Structure formats: structure tokens, C-alpha cells
Amino acid sequence: KKMAQFYYAIGDTANTLFYGEKYNSKNLKDTDVLLMLGDIYTKKNNYEKAFYMYNHARPLMADKTRVTESLAVLYLQKGDTGASISLFKEILNKKPDYPNAQRLYADGWFNEKNYRTALKEYKKAQYYEPKNLHIQKRIAYIYFLLKQYNAAKRELTKYIALNKNDAEVYFYLAISQLRLKQINKAELNLNK
Fold first, then answer.
1. CA 34 to CA 50: how far, in whole Å?
2. I want to staple 109 with a disulfide (CB 3.0 to 4.6 A). Which of 76, 117, 185, 192 is the partner?
3. Which residues, in sequence order, are CB contacts of 40 under 8 Å at separation 6+?
């Protein structure tokens, strides 16, 4: 176990897998190792083995937040947003102030193209992470998709205050300004 943890700490996935699997074959109930192996298999896009590890760890854990989040992220990566949303909701029912779960829960709704629900959930997430660029950009983009150009312009401007180096945001800001008949301002932003 210690060898697997050592190699995991230094980022050596091959040796982590070797020692972790060797240990796991004799100690099937060690949740630390199961989670570690699940994380590595997730990074390697070996979803079948990652699911196996997480699903074996979950019933063994008193606090299932970490493993439930890992499973939810795995479902999100795999494109099964329904399962992901369900698991993130399970986490948020127990820990409503868990920022990472809140943001990823909103991502699930965004991926489902349920933009109004996603917007509501991103706003909740933004309460916990007010300077998170991903959240701010998604909020702005959703307003744009909903054709609420004044709100999109406001949120895009907030995003630019946090990150001036995102050309895509200037493009959406310019398009929003064009929709609002602010031609001169749009031209300025298209040139940035």
C-alpha cells in the first residue's frame, strides 16, 4: 500500500497501478487504494475499471461524498449527464454548500442544454466561488444563448475584469452589443 501511495504522490501512474493492484488483490476493502486506483483509471480514460474501483469503495465508506463525486465526474466525462446530475444532487442534498459539486451539477444541466436550470445552479455555485472563471463564463454564455443580451453584456464584462486574455469572450460581447445596436462598442471589442 505504501509503495502505491508513494508512486501516486509523485505522479508515477504505472508503478501506482502495479503496486496498487497487487495490494488490492489481497485487500479488497481498503478504500484508500480503491479510490486511488479509480482516480488513475479515470485519468487514463479506463472507465470500466474506474467504475469498478469506485463502486467497490462506495458501500465501504461512511462518508460517501468523495467517491460519489468521483463517480459523478466519471459519468459526466462519459456523457451520461443524467446519472451525473443524480449523483451530484445526492451530494448536494447532504452538503448544500459543497462548491465543487454545485459547479459540476450546473455543468451537467448545461450539457443537457437545460440552460435555465444550469443558470440557476451556476448562480448558486458562484456564491461559493465568486471569482471562478468557468462559472462566470458559463453564466454569461447562457444569457447569450437565451438572447438576454443586456445580461450577457453585463456578465461578459464581469468576466473580462477577471480575465482580459480570452478572445472568445470579446467576440460574444461584440455580438451582444451588435444585437443591442451598440455598433461602435462592438467594433472596438471585435478588434481586441
1. 9
2. 117
3. 8, 13, 16, 17, 20
